[in-house]
Design brief:
It is found in: Cell membrane. The protein is mostly helical. About 80% of the residues lie in helices and about 0% in strands. It has helices at about 5-35, 35-45, 55-90, 100-125. The longest helix has about 35 residues, at about 55-90.
Length: about 130
Amino acid sequence: MIPHFTDHAANERTYLAWVRTAISVMAFGFLLERFDIFLTYATRVSDRAVTGLHTRASEWLGLGLLLVGALIILGATQRFYRNRRTIEAAESSPYGDYWIARVMSALLIIMALFLMLYVARQIAALG
């Protein structure tokens, strides 16, 4: 029997959930980075000349999301090993919040707001 098996299993499930989340963020970043292909196609289908489209912003935001996804994996791995050591330790330790999680959340919120404004502007330019 493995001591504290349920705790270790829960730690591993949490780690894998973070990895899945990071992969989703990275996939969305890749999709966003390639958003210029959609804009190019949309302008060719349009029956009028479209001006004011800026695809550089989507490229940078997509690359930023790829980086955030990689950082999520690094942070999740660090947290997994720290929790594993804590589970194995004989003494109790407090469960704390980490500033990196707050910074990552704030960064994702800022990126989401920028993306919302960016897409709205692109749609307005197409319409």
